[in-house]
Design goal:
Length: 140
């Protein structure tokens, strides 16, 4: 039997999405519009696999950093919030890191973004979350 030479690339949907998200998190030679479209397509794939039952929790850091690079895209925020609320219970440490971004989005000028952020913040199933939720709820 011959052994493969050199580093082997992992195969499968998960590895493909991981590599795609890592590439999108870095600034490249794409225009802003092309970058947004590529991010939306990658996020759609992640959400699709997530709804099919595949575990996409390992992509949590890449998903959040990739979405934070496009702060004014409401569609990306919607998909990110869906992803965060789905995996918050299984990765509570990483979900706590997103609370700061959700707080900022609760103070956004756009009422759609504020509502989505508040709904997502209240939907996180993390122990001891009440102290983080009280401020945005009372601020209105």
């Amino acid at each position: 039997m011959s052994k493969p030479r050199g580093p082997t690339k992992p195969r499968g949907e998960y590895a493909e999405l991981s590599a795609q998200l890592q590439g999108l998190c870095m600034t490249g030679k794409r225009s802003n519009l092309e970058l947004r479209q590529a991010k939306k397509e990658a996020f759609k794939k992640v959400i699709n696999y997530m709804t099919l039952g595949m575990d996409m929790a390992g992509l949590f850091p890449m998903m959040t950093s990739c979405a934070n690079l496009s702060p004014d895209d409401v569609v990306l925020k919607k998909m990110l919030y869906l992803y965060i609320t789905h995996y918050a219970a299984s990765t509570p440490d990483l979900a706590l890191l997103t609370i700061n971004q959700l707080h900022k989005d609760c103070q956004d000028q756009d009422p759609t973004v504020r509502g989505l952020a508040l709904r997502s913040l209240c939907s996180l199933r993390i122990p001891n979350l009440l102290e983080y939720v009280v401020t945005p709820v009372t601020a209105g």
